[in-house]
Automatic annotation (TrEMBL):
HTH cro/C1-type domain sequence ranges: 30-84
Organism annotation: Streptomyces parvulus
Protein name in UniProt: Pyridoxamine 5'-phosphate oxidase family protein
Region: Disordered, residue numbers: 1-21
Superkingdom assignment: Bacteria
SUPFAM superfamilies according to UniProt: FMN-binding split barrel (SSF50475), lambda repressor-like DNA-binding domains (SSF47413)
Length: 248
């Protein structure tokens, strides 16, 4: 389990480096969209009814400089105006620069359970097909119950893991403002709990209702064999490099 956390699409200053301005981000989005569409800047300018010089001016000033020009650019680039000027509201996390002077540390098992809390959204990963096939990874809302992970699903759905199957369950969090974050991985054996009274009690807990809706009668429990996690943060001033068991 290893990843690098980066910050969100919002600008920030880090270690004296100024974050990208709104205008710079508009110019960057235009460049990405042009590449995606296979369109030149000259073609964009022509189709948006402006010169290359004026296109550069719109990019550099953005904001309220010429909203109509930005709207024309958005139409040519086939994106909503809000996406061009502010970025996608539903974009995946981690859209900016990473933490300055990052430190990656392992979490103890107790720290992992503390971060998992009582309930939330995570990803169940298992091999659903034939031997050697690619694993399936599906987001589900989960509960922590007696140091295990439980969730409710459709027995015929992608998250309906067979009993006695080896599976992994991952949860993470990213702070979009600082770029810090953590990840917890639970690996173990899948069970299908059948104690009616115990399941009734679990079903009444906050977060137990399946977010996907519909009839989901199968309870799945991941009984941990191993719980591990990592946290990434900024190195503190004069902090020595990590050595020994706490180092990644």
């Amino acid at each position: 389990m290893g990843w690098t956390i980066v910050s969100g699409d919002r600008g920030r200053s880090d270690a004296g480096t100024e974050a990208a301005s709104g205008e710079e981000r508009v110019a960057a989005r235009i460049a990405v969209l042009l590449e995606r569409l296979g369109m030149s800047r000259n073609e964009l300018a022509v189709r948006a009814g402006m010169s290359l010089v004026y296109l550069r001016e719109v990019e550099n000033r953005a904001g309220d400089f010429d909203p109509d020009a930005l709207a024309r650019l958005a139409r040519v680039l086939q994106v909503p105006l809000e996406e061009l000027t502010a970025g996608r509201p539903d974009a995946p996390p981690g859209r900016g620069a990473g933490v300055s002077r990052p430190v990656l540390q392992r979490l103890s098992e107790q720290e992992c359970w503390q971060r998992l809390g009582t309930h939330g959204i995570g990803r169940i990963a298992h091999s659903a097909g034939s031997v050697g096939g690619a694993p399936v990874v599906v987001p589900v809302n989960f509960l922590v119950d007696e140091r295990s992970i439980v969730y409710r699903t459709d027995p015929e759905g992608a998250a309906g893991v067979r009993a006695d199957t080896q599976a992994a369950f991952e949860v993470d969090h990213i702070d979009e403002d600082t770029g810090a974050g953590w990840s917890v991985l639970v690996t173990g054996t899948v069970e299908h709990p059948a104690d009616h009274d115990a399941l009734e009690a679990v079903a009444r807990r906050l977060g137990a209702g399946p977010w996907a809706g519909g009839r989901r009668d199968l309870w799945v429990r991941v009984r941990p064999g191993e719980v591990s996690g990592r946290v990434i943060r900024q190195m503190r001033t004069k902090e020595p490099p990590l050595r020994g068991p706490s180092a990644p």
